[in-house]
UniProtKB/TrEMBL annotation, chain A:
The chain crosses the membrane at residues 28-51, 71-90, 102-125. This is Succinate dehydrogenase. Keywords: Heme, Iron, Membrane, Metal-binding, Transmembrane, Transmembrane helix. It is found in: Membrane. Gene3D superfamilies: Fumarate reductase/succinate dehydrogenase, transmembrane subunit. GO terms for cellular component: membrane. InterPro entries: SQR/QFR_C/D, SuccDH_FuR_B_TM-su. GO terms for molecular function: metal ion binding.
Length: 126, 223
């Protein structure tokens, strides 16, 4: 079983239920966060080249592109977190009869937290 | 109405897609149409079927990307712009065309010995509780294996239907393999097995209930 088979199976969303699509998105956001962590390790290692090099790198993300990237990362984090809480509850065998409602609530919470976070990123942190 | 039926063929190690144009009533089952193609157009087409009324579980296949029993699926309900694509179930070795080798599923029954009857409790007037038993609803069609993203990528996984049978058997002891990554801990709650199950056997829910019972000690692990 190769990586291609695994990806094809995880991310096959055509004709799939909300539960499976959420499972796929949970995995995808997890993979994105793992790559972000690697990228972040790379960017903080520029400190070895001196504070100027690190500041120059950070300046790349100071403009509108930074807002987009920060908002995207926030959305990824929130979706992974809310779907992770849903997953933890049902995987422990609780609320199985209400899992669809729980999943819808998780998505609504995710969207609200994303909007709130983007608002903070645009108007408070910038 | 005229339908284009595209069938994934597998012969002598080669994969191809053949298109057959057929005249069919939208209320006809996909299995009826496949049988007609086999009789009238291509006698080498390989597929499985038996009961024709959704009980034997032999005719499970992927119809326009979704796992279904061909005998209880109306062609008019699943065709998109008159096109129906038929593929074998995923997660199993393809024998030929639409026929798969389900020994991956049946072979696992040697690991565990679920009872043949599901234990239920019947309540009369909400007062008297009468234990009773019924035959399992599971058709052993393999649709849950095909739909499950874990069973598709982790060949050692015992699989949704088998774990659900163990869960519903009501046994107080289960073998060690059930309490492992190959067993209940392999499930990651995608629930596609439950959504696609043609008899609403709810494998996903049953697996996670069994997991909870193992954690709480209501079901003991032996071996």
């Amino acid at each position: 079983m190769g990586l291609r088979d695994a990806f094809t199976s995880w991310f096959r969303i055509k004709g799939r239920s909300l539960e499976h699509v959420s499972f796929a998105i949970r995995r995808l956001t997890g993979i994105i966060m793992a790559f972000y962590l690697l990228g972040h390790l790379v960017d903080i290692t520029t400190l070895l080249a001196g504070p100027e090099a690190y500041s120059q790198l950070l300046n790349l993300f100071a403009g509108p592109m930074g807002v987009v990237i920060d908002s995207f990362l926030w959305a990824v984090l929130v979706i992974h977190g809310t779907l992770g809480i849903y997953s933890a509850i049902v995987e422990m065998g609780f609320l199985l009869e209400h899992r669809r409602k729980l999943l819808v609530i998780a998505w609504i919470c995710a969207l609200l937290f994303i909007l709130l976070g983007v608002e903070v990123i645009i108007n408070v942190l910038r | 109405m005229r339908y284009k039926v595209v069938i994934r063929r597998y012969k002598d190690g080669r994969i191809s897609f053949d298109t057959f144009e057929v005249e069919a009533n939208p209320s006809e089952s996909v299995l009826d149409v496949v049988e007609r193609i086999s009789i009238e157009k291509d006698k080498t087409l390989v597929f499985e079927h038996a009961c024709h009324h959704g009980v034997c579980g032999a005719c499970g296949m992927v119809i326009n990307g979704v796992e279904r029993l061909a005998c209880i699926t109306r062609i008019g309900d699943v065709a998109r712009n008159g096109v129906v694509v038929l593929e074998p179930l995923r997660g199993f070795k393809v024998i030929s065309d639409l026929a798969v080798d389900k020994s991956r599923m049946f072979g696992r029954y040697r690991h565990v010995a679920p009872s043949t009857l599901e234990k239920l409790e019947l309540r009369l007037n909400n007062a008297v509780s009468i234990p009773r038993e019924k035959l399992y609803d599971c058709l052993e069609c393999g649709i849950c294996y095909s739909a499950c993203p874990i069973a598709n990528t982790f060949p050692e996984y015992l699989g949704p239907s088998l774990l659900a049978l163990i869960s519903r058997s009501g046994n107080e002891r289960v073998p060690r393999v059930v309490d492992s990554r190959r067993g209940v801990w392999g499930c990651h709650a995608a629930f596609e097995c439950s959504v696609r199950c043609p008899v609403n056997f709810k494998p996903g829910e049953s697996i996670l209930k069994l997991r909870r019972n193992i954690i709480s000690g209501r079901v003991r692990v032996e071996g």
